[in-house]
């Protein structure tokens, strides 16, 4: 099982931050001008809720930041999502860089959706159409215990595992993403960055009943665990793989600068100007497990 926290980061900038302590200088070339790309974090789902899209901008290497991991928010943009049936869902700017629908809306399985962003200076970015796939329902969500065997775990102690079971549809290429979160009470937010997440494809378990350990319960005060199972497209799956590959590459400060991972959003009038991030369309099913003491 691959596990990842999807954090859109500009790797070409990050790997160079460690050079600030060096005495010798070196040319950074176009890196100083590699700024002003927009970064999009957004998932459009079939949940009947307010849908949210976050948009920010990158910074040039030579431009000071106002704080750690602080990137300027893209404000004043016009944002919408349209489907192949002639429907358009407009997003309004709730706070700087955070765009939301006017009320609860939901996508429909089988339809294709396109994100359009028009910046305040007239640039228009459009995603490729993403077709919403149907997600298999969660068949069972259970907890089991096994003897702990980690280096930092007390010998003979037990750890709690969350088991997920579902039936994968036969003969269909399915791509899954899971989100899960622990809580001392049965009160969970909409999926956000506080959720753990992982993803996989069904190449090796097509058409079977799949049961696996999704997670280890980390906190002693956990009483509830919420799990979301989502269906994503092949393009979104490949994007997540590319993000993981760069994060796990272990590049040193003098390694070649990695190529920015291209998502599915491009300037309508300039294909060289692409957004970082990916507009994901996914259907969602969820379940909550109560852990008895």
What can you tell me about this protein's structure?
The chain has about 290 residues and is mainly β. Helix content is about 5%, strand content about 40%. The chain has two domains: about 10-130 and about 250-280, Sandwich (Immunoglobulin-like), CATH 2.60.40; about 140-230, Sandwich (Immunoglobulin-like), CATH 2.60.40. The strands form two sheets. It has a 15-stranded mixed β-sheet that branches. A three-stranded antiparallel β-sheet has the order 10-11-14, with no helix packed on it. A hairpin with a 2-residue loop joins strand 5 (about 90-95) and strand 6 (about 100).
Can I get a quick summary?
The protein has 293 residues and is mainly β.
The CATH superfamily of the largest domain appears as Expansin, cellulose-binding-like domain
**What is CATH's topology name of the largest domain?**
Immunoglobulin-like
Structural class: mainly beta
State the distance separating the first and last CA atoms: 28 Å
Give helix and strand order, one letter per element, not per position: EHEEEEEEEEEEEEEEHEEE
Tally of discrete structural domains: 2
Count up the helices.
2
Describe the sheet with the most strands.
15 strands, mixed
Q: Kindly state the mean pLDDT as a whole number?
A: 85
**Number of distinct beta strands:** 18
The CATH architecture of the largest domain is Sandwich
- C-alpha Rg (nearest Å): 21 Å
Helical content (DSSP H or I, runs of 4+): under 10%
- The CATH class of the largest domain is identified as Mainly Beta
Fraction in beta strands: 35-45%
Detail the poorly predicted runs.
Answer: 2-34
- Principal-axes geometry comes out as globular
């Amino acid at each position: 099982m691959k596990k990842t926290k999807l954090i859109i980061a500009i790797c070409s900038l990050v790997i160079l931050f460690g050079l600030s302590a060096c005495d010798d200088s070196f040319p950074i070339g176009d890196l100083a001008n590699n700024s002003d790309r927009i970064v999009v974090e957004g998932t459009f789902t079939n949940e009947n809720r307010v849908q949210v899209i976050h948009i920010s901008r990158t910074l040039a290497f030579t431009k000071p930041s106002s704080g750690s991991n602080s990137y300027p928010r893209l404000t004043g943009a016009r944002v919408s999502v349209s489907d192949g049936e002639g429907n358009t869902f407009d997003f309004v700017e709730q706070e700087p860089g955070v765009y939301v629908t006017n009320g609860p809306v939901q996508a429909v399985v089988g339809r294709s959706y396109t994100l359009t962003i028009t910046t305040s200076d007239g640039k228009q970015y459009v995603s490729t159409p993403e077709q919403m796939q149907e997600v298999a329902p969660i068949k069972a969500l259970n907890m089991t215990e096994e003897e702990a065997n980690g280096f930092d775990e007390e010998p003979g102690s037990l750890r709690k595992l969350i088991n997920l079971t579902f039936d994968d549809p036969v003969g269909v290429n399915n791509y899954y993403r899971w989100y899960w979160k622990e809580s001392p009470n049965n009160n969970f937010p909409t999926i956000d960055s506080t959720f753990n997440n992982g993803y996989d494809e069904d190449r090796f378990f097509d058409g079977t009943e799949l049961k696996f350990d999704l997670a280890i319960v980390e906190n002693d005060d956990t009483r509830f665990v919420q799990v979301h199972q989502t269906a994503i497209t092949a393009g979104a799956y490949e994007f997540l793989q590319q993000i993981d590959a760069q994060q796990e590459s272990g590049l040193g400060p003098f390694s070649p600068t990695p190529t920015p991972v291209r998502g599915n959003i491009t300037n309508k009038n300039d294909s060289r100007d692409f957004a970082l991030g990916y507009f994901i369309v996914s259907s969602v099913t969820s379940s909550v497990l109560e852990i008895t003491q």
